[in-house]
Amino acid sequence: MKIRILAGAVMALLAIAGLVIISTYVGTADARALGSQEPREVYLVTAPILEGTPVEEFGESVTLHTVPASIVPDGAVTELATHSGTVAAVDLQPGEQLLGSRLVDPQALEEPGTVPVPDGLQEVTIQLEAPRVIGGQLAAGDTVGFFVSFEGEEGRESKTAKDLHKVLVTSVQGAPSTTAPAEGAEATGNQAPAVPEGSMLVTFAVNADTAEKIVYASEFGRIWLSLEPEDAEENDNGATRGDFE
Q: Tell me, what's the pLDDT at 229?
């Protein structure tokens, strides 16, 4: 009986030793094979990464792996630091190599004709006739001043006030349109929402208090916008000044 137990123990030890030898051989063979193919370190995606995610937030969703140079495509990312400030241009899936072409400037994901909303601000949109929007010559990224006229009631005089300066425009839709589409022409691409003829939809980035003033003026007054760049003076002689309230 003792002989059988001893023999079994010896066989188990031999099996373990065999596994160690085989594993070492395979690992050494893999290393030799990899070495002969000029190995490179690249980042592989290990967890889903959503479009728009900053590189600085990839975290453990990507890991550095050593792979044969023969399977590394052009543009493979080898150092995340060189792509600081970029974001994922598309959804990235586990198993794929991280490519520089899939990392873009955040503004590249913004809808054409718009600008990013500064942190801490919200957007509000109003509809105006084209002449009240600097003749329709307004674009996203411009800053404007607000002139608002209120009709006098119960003996009060009508008044025009300018109470808002350098408000950021984030989007402009609608007029002007100087030419009509050619007969039989087909629309292509994504179409903007329909805007009443001669009118424009202007969107602003503002804080909550300013949004409230704009909504109030749109509901109960008449608004004119002035193009007011950052270096424009904000002088006011007070002759027709009032509040939006």
A: 87
Selecting from 3.40.50.1100, 3.90.1210.10, 3.40.190.10, 1.10.10.60, what CATH number does the domain 32-107 have?
3.90.1210.10
Residue 8 reports pLDDT greater than 70? no
User: Which helix (H) or strand (E) covers residue 222, if one does?
Assistant: strand 222-227
Contact 46, 63 (CB under 8 A): yes
Q: Tell whether the torsion through CA atoms of 38, 43, 45 and 46 is positive or negative.
A: positive
Sheet containing 122-129, strands listed edge to edge, beginning at the edge strand earlier in sequence: 122-129, 199-206, 159-174, 143-150, 222-227
Q: What is the CA radius of gyration of the chain?
A: 33
Domain extents in the chain: 32-107, 110-178+192-245
Task: Specify the 3-state DSSP secondary structure of 90.
Answer: coil
Q: Which amino acid is at 69?
A: A
pTM exceeding the 0.85 threshold for the entire prediction: no
Q: What is the pLDDT of residues 107-152, one digit of tens each?
A: 777 666 778 888 899 999 999 999 999 888 888 899 999 999 988 7
Which helix (H) or strand (E) covers residue 217, if one does? helix 208-220
Strand duo 143-150 + 159-174: pairing: antiparallel
What's the CA gap between 142 and 145, in Å, rounded? Answer: 10
pLDDT 10s digits, 16-34: 554 444 455 445 555 555 4
